[in-house]
UniProtKB/TrEMBL annotation:
It comes from the Bacteria. Keywords: Hydrolase. It holds the Pfam family 4HBT_2. CDD domains: 4HBT. It comes from Antrihabitans spumae. Gene3D superfamilies: Hotdog Thioesterase (3.10.129.10). Transmembrane segments: none annotated. InterPro entries: 4-hydroxybenzoyl-CoA_TE, HotDog_dom_sf. This is Acyl-CoA thioesterase.
Amino acid sequence: MTEPYTCRVEVRWADLDLLGHVNNTKYFEYGMEARVKFYEHCVLHPDGVRRPALVLRKADMDYLRPILLSSGPLTIETWVTHIGTTSYSIRHRMRDKHGELCAEGSAVMVGFDLKQQKPRPLSDEERTALGAYLISSV
């Protein structure tokens, strides 16, 4: 792949603060929603088998312009910037319905062994699927 995965996320009335802007914490929720859609679409297989767990290690966000209720639906581009042994880094760009860039964020996801409660190596299957969206710069 040379293009990011793209999905739409709705702006909900309950996401707004008293000023009528989307609350800053909701940007992280939009990023999480995009990561879940990315993982389901790009990494999970349609066989319905539950895949190994992932946990969020780190997330950050650059707020570039306010998101309003009328800004949605948002288009969120998601791509992988690094694949390590037990983790991968992911990047998001959030655009309003007019294509204006509202925020950019990143996250580090870690493969996690639920029984041992510690990081696990990413499987070859996961690495291959993630590699299809590995883009050094967009």
